[in-house]
From TrEMBL:
<keyword id="KW-0539">Nucleus</keyword>
<keyword id="KW-0820">tRNA-binding</keyword>
<dbReference type="InterPro" id="IPR011989">
    <property type="entry name" value="ARM-like"/>
</dbReference>
<dbReference type="GO" id="GO:0031267">
    <property type="term" value="F:small GTPase binding"/>
</dbReference>
<feature type="compositionally biased region" description="Gly residues">
    <location>
        <begin position="425"/>
        <end position="434"/>
    </location>
</feature>
<dbReference type="InterPro" id="IPR040017">
    <property type="entry name" value="XPOT"/>
</dbReference>
<feature type="region of interest" description="Disordered">
    <location>
        <begin position="415"/>
        <end position="435"/>
    </location>
</feature>
<feature type="domain" description="Exportin-T C-terminal">
    <location>
        <begin position="163"/>
        <end position="374"/>
    </location>
</feature>
<dbReference type="GO" id="GO:0071528">
    <property type="term" value="P:tRNA re-export from nucleus"/>
</dbReference>
<dbReference type="GO" id="GO:0005737">
    <property type="term" value="C:cytoplasm"/>
</dbReference>
<dbReference type="Pfam" id="PF19282">
    <property type="entry name" value="Exportin-T"/>
</dbReference>
<dbReference type="GO" id="GO:0005643">
    <property type="term" value="C:nuclear pore"/>
</dbReference>
<feature type="compositionally biased region" description="Low complexity">
    <location>
        <begin position="146"/>
        <end position="155"/>
    </location>
</feature>
<dbReference type="InterPro" id="IPR016024">
    <property type="entry name" value="ARM-type_fold"/>
</dbReference>
<feature type="region of interest" description="Disordered">
    <location>
        <begin position="133"/>
        <end position="156"/>
    </location>
</feature>
<comment type="similarity">
    <text>Belongs to the exportin family.</text>
</comment>
<keyword id="KW-0963">Cytoplasm</keyword>
């Protein structure tokens, strides 16, 4: 009843001295250790829920005398995290993390005692899989606002998924709700008022065992994954690999700990802490290297990299080349490549031109892998991945912006699912033909997603000032990129994709060529050949897209270069009316003028 009363209670009713509700909560929470039947499963859950709901009442007290009683609900032996009921213990981990978020600074004097009490629970969470009774959504945060939980060893069949299961599987593996206790510990330790020496000692005591857990289970997990490939066809139980689960759990535990440490602390005020997490990243890179085909471990590692980027900022840059190389392995399938492209796109958004050396190194293998996965017969119009009934109306997609595009994508996925279901039902008696059709549709859908992810990656490359990577790439890579953009700009069923390709083609060609900062010498033979390729690409884009492309050049691309108006008009005229050779000569002249202007500006700056 106390919990329900707090649901709609006004803020004033919970302030000290303004009503009986807050006072009643303080009395009950302060004497929580003496609650009648306090260890009963339902009573224990209700008491912890009430403690979280009334945490702000505890916070407003002058001396917070109720805090020891509240902590006893969670940390006393046989209660809270140590409750005999697995459901109660799992839920307690989630609720304790919420309590720490609310009372973070108030709990600082108790940090040492809290960490000592939590130590056995931390070890158990990191090393002991949850029982079947504690699987997703039954007891943890998923029951009342927290994410769905519980990844178990039973889910790790060599890290691979059958094609029929791919459409139902999330992009990242579910996690164990008990790991919220590591998040709570990170929040406690990540406070600036805690002395650095104490932080380092406590953090080292937590991170070192987790890193050893990763390193010690890599070889057994790899052996289990190899055995799982054979076992899938027979006994699935034989493919369950606890070592892989232990690695998953350790990676997530480190990521949860890291959430409590702000980027400023890890990079500026206390870089020693950031270095400890960088050591964890170095260890984590060995996971996809040892188990390149393990889907759940790949997903968890990518999420781990995202977490480290948020906390360590540019400190992760030296580690990214190795991380991306092990992710983009030669056996990477379409979904693996999509994950890498999405990661690189987000990294470019965060680090911009600092990513240029890495993008230059990764662009050739990325382009080659995308081309190999899509194959020479892939229809770049996207029709294979988009059923005709789901194709967006051009006027709607063009006028509705991002919301219309999202709605169209959702309609496409729904229609694809219906078509798969119909094909499967229709082919049920045909000796497996229905399953083959479903597999073919699923493969086409994945390829369509890969094409879109590739365009998003190229858009990020051009949008964040990294088009110079195209200039450094081999001619075959540039040809492949421009061919994919021109085909998408001319024929894709989604108008938003066509517009993106059109914009990218112009920006990649013109901006990459004419920005003086690229240092191209117009008199060089290699540059002359490149200018010819750019001219041919611009003519092809105009032939495919017409005046829409010319308008984009006039309205956005050329003005951003600061060229005189007459030069802009001359360029657009040659794109529209001239042959590729004349356009090449025009581009070469503009490049000479750009280089001369840059040299003059540099000389004037040196003269000052």
């Amino acid at each position: 009843m106390l919990y329900e009363l707090g649901e709609g209670a006004p803020e004033d009713a919970l302030k000290p001295g303004t009503g009986g509700l807050g006072q009643l909560a303080l009395v009950l929470l302060g004497s929580a250790g003496a609650l009648p039947r306090g260890r009963h499963r339902l009573v224990a859950l209700a008491a912890m829920e009430a403690a979280v709901r009334y945490a702000r009442v505890v916070q407003q007290q002058a001396q917070q005398p109720a805090i020891p009683g509240v902590l006893s609900l969670f940390l006393e032996p046989g209660r809270g995290l140590g409750h005999p009921s697995v459901d109660v213990g799992t839920r307690a981990c989630y609720l304790f993390s919420r309590l720490v978020k609310l009372l973070r600074s108030n709990l600082r004097p108790y940090a040492g005692d809290i960490l000592s009490s939590l130590q056995p629970h931390l070890v158990a969470v990191a090393t002991v899989p949850p029982p079947a009774a504690a699987q997703p959504g039954q007891s943890g945060g998923g029951a009342a606002g927290g994410p769905a939980a519980a990844s178990s060893p039973a889910a790790l069949v060599g890290g691979r998924e059958s094609s029929s299961a791919k459409q139902l599987a999330p992009s990242t593996s579910p996690v164990d709700d008990r790991l919220y206790v590591f998040e709570a510990v990170g929040l406690l330790l990540g406070q600036e008022d805690i002395p650095l020496e104490q932080q380092q000692a406590a953090l080292s005591g937590l991170l070192q065992p987790l890193m050893r857990q990763i390193e010690g289970n890599l070889r057994p997990a790899a052996a289990g994954a190899a055995a799982g490939v054979v076992a899938v066809a027979g006994d699935a139980a034989a493919a369950r690999a606890p070592p892989a689960w232990l690695i998953l759990q350790a990676l997530e535990a480190i990521a949860r700990l890291n959430k409590g440490f702000k980027a400023d602390m890890c990079t500026r005020t206390r870089p020693q802490l950031g270095q400890m997490f960088l050591s964890c990243l170095e260890t984590a890179i060995q996971v996809p290297k040892a188990l390149p085909g393990h889907k759940q471990l790949r997903a968890r590692f990518i999420a781990f990299v995202h977490r480290m980027v948020e906390s360590l900022l540019a400190g992760v840059l030296p580690y990214l080349p190795m991380a991306l190389q092990v992710l983009m392995h030669t056996q990477a399938d379409a979904q693996d490549t999509i994950d890498v492209l999405s990661l690189m796109t987000q990294l470019m958004t965060r680090f911009k031109d600092a990513m240029l050396p890495l993008v230059e190194a990764m662009l050739p293998p990325v382009a080659a892998r995308v081309a190999a996965l899509l194959g020479p017969d892939w229809d770049w119009s996207g029709r294979q991945a988009s059923p005709p009934s789901a194709a967006p109306a051009p006027a709607q997609a063009a006028g509705g912006g991002a919301a219309a595009a999202a709605a169209a994508a959702g309609a496409q996925r729904a229609a694809a699912g219906q078509q798969q279901q119909q094909q499967e039902q229709g082919g049920g008696g045909g000796g497996g033909s229905g399953a083959e059709v479903v597999a073919t549709l699923e493969e086409a859908r994945e390829k369509g997603e890969l094409q879109r992810a590739y365009y998003s990656f190229l858009h990020g490359l051009a949008h964040h000032g990294l088009a110079a990577a195209l200039l450094q790439a081999p001619a075959s890579v540039l040809d492949s990129v421009l061919a994919s953009l021109t085909q998408g700009a001319a024929s894709h069923v989604d108008p938003t994709v066509r517009r993106t390709c059109l914009q990218l083609g112009g920006e990649a060609c013109v901006l990459g060529l004419l920005r003086a900062s690229q240092g191209l010498d117009a008199r060089d033979a290699a540059t002359a050949a490149f200018v010819g390729e750019v001219a041919a690409a611009l003519k092809l884009l105009y032939e495919k897209c017409g005046d829409e492309f010319a308008a984009h050049l006039c309205g956005r691309v050329l003005p951003s270069l600061g060229l005189p108006q007459e030069v802009q008009q001359q360029l657009v005229h040659h794109v529209r009316e001239s042959d590729p050779k004349q356009l090449k000569d025009c581009l070469r002249n503009v490049l000479l003028q750009t280089n001369a202007a840059a040299a003059a500006a540099a000389g004037a700056g040196a003269g000052r």
